[in-house]
Write a structure and sequence with these properties.
The complex is a heterotrimer.
Chain A: H1 5-28, H2 59-83, H3 85-112
Helix pairs in contact in A: 2-3
Chain B: H1 3-9, H2 21-53, H3 69-78, H4 90-106, E1 116-119, E2 122-125, H5 136-155, H6 159-190, H7 195-201, E3 207-210, E4 213-216, H8 221-224, H9 226-240, H10 251-254, H11 264-289, H12 297-302, H13 311-333, H14 339-369, H15 375-413, H16 438-447
Antiparallel strand pairs in B: 1-2, 3-4
Chain C: H1 18-40, H2 43-70, E1 75-78, E2 83-86, H3 87-107, H4 128-135, H5 143-156, H6 163-181, H7 188-220, H8 225-235, H9 240-257, H10 265-272, H11 275-300, H12 305-327, H13 333-354, H14 357-383, E3 384-386, E4 389-390, H15 400-403, H16 405-419, H17 425-439, H18 443-469, E5 478-479, H19 483-501, H20 504-514
Antiparallel strand pairs in C: 1-2, 3-4, 3-5
Helix pairs in contact in C: 1-2, 1-5, 2-3, 3-5, 3-11, 3-14, 3-19, 3-20, 5-6, 6-7, 6-11, 7-8, 7-9, 7-10, 9-11, 10-11, 10-13, 11-13, 11-14, 12-13, 12-18, 13-14, 13-17, 13-18, 14-16, 14-17, 14-19, 14-20, 16-18, 16-19, 17-18, 17-19
The chains are: A mainly alpha, B mainly alpha, C mainly alpha.
Chain lengths: 119, 448, 520
Amino acid sequence: MNLYVPIVVLGALALLFAVGSVIMGSFTGPKRWNRARLEAYECGIEPTPQPVGGGRFPVKYYLTAMLFIVFDIEIIFLYPWAVAFDHMGLFGLVEMVLFIVTVLIAYAYVWRRGGLEWD
Amino acid sequence: MSETHVLAEGATLNSFGHDPWWIIGLKALVVFVFLLLTVLITVWAERRIIGRMQLRPGPNRAGPFGILQALFDGIKGALKEDIVPRGVDKVVFFLAPILAAAPAMVSFSVIPWGGVVSIGGHKTPLQLADLPVAVLLPLAMASIGVYGFVLAGWSSMSPYALLGGLRSSAQVISYEIAMGLSFVAVFLFSGTLSTSEIVAAQAHGTAFKVAGMTLHTPSWYAVLLLPSFIIYIFTMMGESGRIPFDLPEGEGELVAGYHTEYSSLKFMMFYLAEYVNMTTLSALCTTLFLGGYRAPWPITWFWSGANSGWWPVLWFLIKIWMFTFFFIWLRAALPRVRYDQLMKLGWKVLIPVSLGWILFVSVVRALRNEHHDVGPIMIVAAIIVVLLLIASFLWERVSASEAQPEEAEAAAEQDPMAGGFPVPPLDAPHYHGVGNGRAPNSAEATRA
Amino acid sequence: MTPVYMAAGDIPTPHIEYGRLAPVLIVLGAACVGVLVEALAPRAQRYGLQVLVSVVGLVAAFAWTIALGIGDQPHHVAAMGAVGVDGPTLFIQGTILVLALMSMLLIAERRHEDSPFTAQASTVPGSPEERESLVAGLVQTEIYPLVLFAVGGMLIFPAANDLLTMFVALEVMSLPLYLLCGLARRRRLLSQEAAVKYFLLGAFSSAFFLYGTAMLYGFAGSVRLSEIAAAISKQGGDEPLLLAGVALLSVGLLFKMGAAPFQAWKPDVYQGAPTALTALMASCTLVAAVGGVLRVFYVGLETLRWDWRPMMWAVAILTMLVGAIVAITQTDVKRMLAYSSIAHGGFLLTGVIATNKAGLSSTLFYLAAYGFTTVGAFAVITMVRDAGGEAGHLSRWAGLGKRQPLVAGTFAFFLLAFAGIPLTSGFTGKFAVFQAAMAGGAMPLVIVGVVSSAIAAFFYVRVIVLMFFSEPLADGPTVSFSPATATAVAVGAFVTLVLGVIPAPALHLAQSAANQLFVR
């Protein structure tokens, strides 16, 4: 039996439950039309008109996403390395230290240029 | 307790993939029901415990000790109107709660509950599934879960929800890096990504001899790799999006964050996802750092059967409930951090510390593998750490004293109509409790 | 299905010959040092430090390349077969390093204005912030590490012995260039447009390259060039997977060298990019790209040459003709040189098509000769300036020969070299390439080459006539003199002359480099 089958079974169960709940929610509740209730919630004031597609996000978030990719790739390299570490001897250590140091150089640059600041 | 005995009952990757269909179905159903029940009990327990900590009883009407409160809340949620505001992106709006809830549950499938037991004549491990890359599954599912939060915020077409969704995504991906890095040392020691084998690897510490006695190093990675454990605890808080890191839904500023526009059962799905995530994070921590389902040391000392049969489930539940209590306790005890503090902790503290720790651990392990003496390295590393701590402390002090005059200037120059919009003053006497006699009284009134 | 286990016990420890890879490692290491300089050094000292790091890195890498070349006969694969270190590769790498050093003279130039690059890349063109940063005299010193990263990629590209390494090198070389293209100090919108075009088309061609790699992997079961060659000779060459893979891979490679019909990016990018960077791209990138083409077609696909030759014939003919004919209508100097570069790409392809030792050695020689000439020519362009920066439009160059005979004369000399007039390196290069192509039986190609050379000569001569035989403009451009740029011009002119008058030593060097062909 494939190792992944149980995961798929649980996933199907969870998906069924979530989809069922969301669909059920629109039947079980009462329906009373109210114009104000259909507006976006903004503490009672007139809602701000939202640009189509959500508009533009602050560039900070893009930067965070890019940095995430950099470090996530580092992690992806680190996992197999860590698992096989005992079989590779000093070579594995030296190579990975070089790799981590290279990423740290970029990290230092980003830090010094304020890429990690939130204000 | 003999070595072979333990190995016989502990599961390895070999034990998986042999279950018949009905056992798979049964196990999946048990995990699913367990998660739902855990959520109900956790919600109730949280309200009771926080109530106690705040010197009030908490829910105590529905059922004995109010234990049915969460269930009734759920039923009430289903009977509330399901509001779909105008202007939302309908498909994504419906999809988001599903994306948040379903993956959260899948993560639990790789968590080991116990060793091999016999169900209906079949030898089967007490764990739904295990993979050669099992630990990646919770990480992957956490990433998919983020889609739920982001899409919820985005599809709502509401500024609060959008901000909440963005914050949530930035926060979760920031803390996921540190979380991923905190696992590396564990994999370094266990040599595998399979959860059951990581638990097995924590069964015994390596033996060493001191003064003629054979002793064992601590077997739990929480002790052996304490920095990793501490980093994981931080990231666990960050990933779960709970106090003190609950900025995506900080009600003081964002109403309810990404699920502001959700109601009825769709809202319940987000609620469910949060608590399931909490349970999963606790279970993952138990598995990776606290020896999983294995009984803690003093028990095994006088009771050799503690790790056999169905008993491990008990240890496992005790351990994850410890973490759940810890989550609740923190919520009662800590205030919320600011967003910049949150990101600073994630990017400027946890990541470099993790990387430094990985470098240290790998150097020590490599030298030990090559049979070198690691004593001097330890001393050098200790000195470096102390120096770094002092340096960063001084740095903080210097930069803080540099920043202060600027802040004072900015406050003095603040324009009450900045950019054409009225802005409240950054600093006013009543912020410090001066000149407003009513504030303490009204606080009293609300508490009563 | 039985569970799959990681065979942790039998991971062979790879061995990496750091000594043989040192030129690349030095350049990339210098780039990392440059990043650290950016992070840690105070703003005032960054320029000096960066130039120092870049020049030292390039010189050290060049010295090491020379040492590798004159040491034992270099014919090795390094890093588990991922990189080939052999005669042609070292020749190409050495050429790239020298040309990069010459371009560095232009990039680091700060006599004409604070820098050829924008003061602060993040400011919007025309915004008050931009003006402020200009007034403050800011300089974007990230340029230097970016250039070094690009050069590092260029060094790996022709050396890559498997397609994945080649792809990584392609990206390492391209990504900094995309960015650098958008950093011109003047006409920033044009520059940013060039960067976006280059990026989009480049990303597109990278995808082609990757698809081709995937298909060749599907065919041969390996991305190693030698194993692809072995698979071709074993299984025959009419597999659809193989032919489609070769076609897609060729698209990716030909795009990088700007061969027609994939030349569309070249004029826009060359015109929009800062001229100092255009010099780098027109010389080093072209050398690296042709080096990569050579390796793929000589090592990986040599046994398939009867299948790809017709296609490459068409490409070469089209490239030569498009480059030469469209150039006639150009009114911008940099655009004109861009089309000239396209045409030269076509001439180079005739050498590639020969697939013999003479073809290889003549292509190597041509690359070096063309590289020096083109850096020199772009260096002259940076010197001829108006109030608004470089005088790009050809009409502004009218009568320059009467006011600045030396500068105009040097430029005319470079143009004659492009045209392939005897006593210039261009002539020797073309002669060698055509000779090799004829030996390889590509007579029609040679005829087209000669014809398009004649067409090209027309517009080169037109510029010379414009400079020397028309009246100078009243408000014509001035020539801004500076030692660094003048050095670049002088070196370019000197090498162009020497390779034209006494080409034997250089030809001999290229022959001995090509003698062993590429290592497999």
